[in-house]
Amino acid sequence: MAEILDSATSGAPTPAPDAGAEPPLEFNTTFQGQKLVLRVKRDGVVADLKAAITDETQVPAKRQKLIGLVKGALPPDESKLAELVGPRGEKPPTKFLLMGTPDDKLFIDPKDRDDLPEIIDDLDPDFDYQALSDEWHRSRRHAATLEKFVAKTEINWLTPRRKGKKLLVLDLDHTLLDFNRHDPPTQVSANSKRPGMDAFLEAVYEDYDLVVWSQTHWRWLELKLTALGMLSSSKFKICFVLDKTSMFRIVSRRKDGSEFKHAVKPLRLIWDKVDGWNAANTLHLDDLSRNFALNPRSGVKCKAYHRDKPNAARDAELPALAAYLAHVARASKGLSAFDHGKWRDVWKKIREA
User: What is the pTM of this model?
Assistant: First the structure.
């Protein structure tokens, strides 16, 4: 038995159990913006909880991800719910993060279709992002439009931020990994990871809190993140995830006067909503510099990773970036003192020292 409570009614009292009946176990989670209260008989097993989830969300058990219910992997289906121990020692646990895609919502991401043109490179090399950013931010009309966009965008936290840590915003596709477009959506391979991805995330986590911002839709994004263990690692944590719906569209102008419409990842969306994170302590790692067109001083551009390219297995971009990011995070003069567009020059000096 399960009961859905939306955000407007989540505080309403729930009916009391029948007199003399043993109270059921109660689990609280959120799925696609709705708060769920799942009630399962006290002698129930993990399979019963999964069945209750399927009844209410239409997500089959094989695609359910119950993150944070227990420490580590979820026990087998026949395990007693009342005997589970939560990540903080609570017995039984009562809260978890639910992820999964209903059958009718499965889709192939447009980026992975063969019938669409592939973007091979970034914008023109002579594109002046800093001039664009300065001009854009001087416009009151633009500022008001962005302010409205930021106000209506919500952040759903997965892990609390840590005091004193800087922020690293991470792109996903072709920055940290590359999915083969011919792989079925339900068969995500560890081969998709850029060489050194796990070690990179563990290394940068020492100095930065991590946020993933991808230009794909959440339903596809969560499949990638969960299948590769990025939301359940004990070595690093993701504070929250933003998808393509959090990207803001602008019109840029090249030096030849031609206009170019594209989406960007405005860091103001995060800075306005999270006290303590700002331009002085935030970096944005992406393989497309147009994604940080409104915040070019915070952008760190990496080479795009394609796993089917020659020598892809010997790609060493992430170890180099890890060294650079640690260096600037610990420098006394602060992040804003560096020209992150020339990060390779700094890394070469680090390597030669």
Answer: 0.65
pLDDT digits (tens, 9 = 90+) for 35-51: 888 989 888 899 889 98
Q: Output 295-302 pairs: Cβ under 8 A, ≥24 positions apart.
A: 295/133, 295/266, 295/267, 295/268, 296/129, 296/130, 296/133, 296/341, 297/130, 297/336, 297/340, 298/267, 298/335, 298/340, 299/129, 299/340, 299/341, 300/324, 300/325, 300/340, 300/343, 301/122, 301/341, 302/175
Report CA torsion sign: 323, 329, 334, 337.
Answer: positive
Per-residue CA distances from 144 to 29, 147, 202, 240, 253 (Å): 35, 5, 38, 25, 20
Q: Is residue 1 classed as helix, strand or coil in its secondary structure?
A: coil
Q: How many residues does the chain have?
A: 353
What does the alpha-carbon distance between residue 49 and residue 55 come to, in Å, rounded to a whole number? 10
- The string of pLDDT tens digits covering residues 187-224 is 566 788 999 999 999 999 999 999 999 988 777 787 77
